Amino acid sequence: MREPLDLRESVSPCYAAFVIARTWTARATGDNVRAYVAFFEGTLVPDLRAIPGHVGAIVTTRDDHIAVTTFWDSMDAIRRFADPIDVAVVEPEARALLDSFDERVLHAEVAVDTFSRAR
Known about the structure:
The chain is α+β, with helices and mostly antiparallel strands.
């Protein structure tokens, strides 16, 4: 059995296959859900792609719920995006669209990834 990932340190290069998921949720109503998704896709995706160590993102929606998960190759990569790493990064434009959002994020090691095998 593999040791749990110590989220205080970077992932060792010998475990380069590890990916860390950073998850955050929010709520918005009606058109603002769609507007947030458009903002994420048009503004945040290019910004995230420019950060070394960012490996992807997904945004899911249901009714007034929004969940954002970004994927990173190390905690150092996440620090390039957010420091302190456990605090949500919510741009002013996004705040204007959201009714509420998590102030904190959850980091977890990706244990199974079927996306890469599905392509």
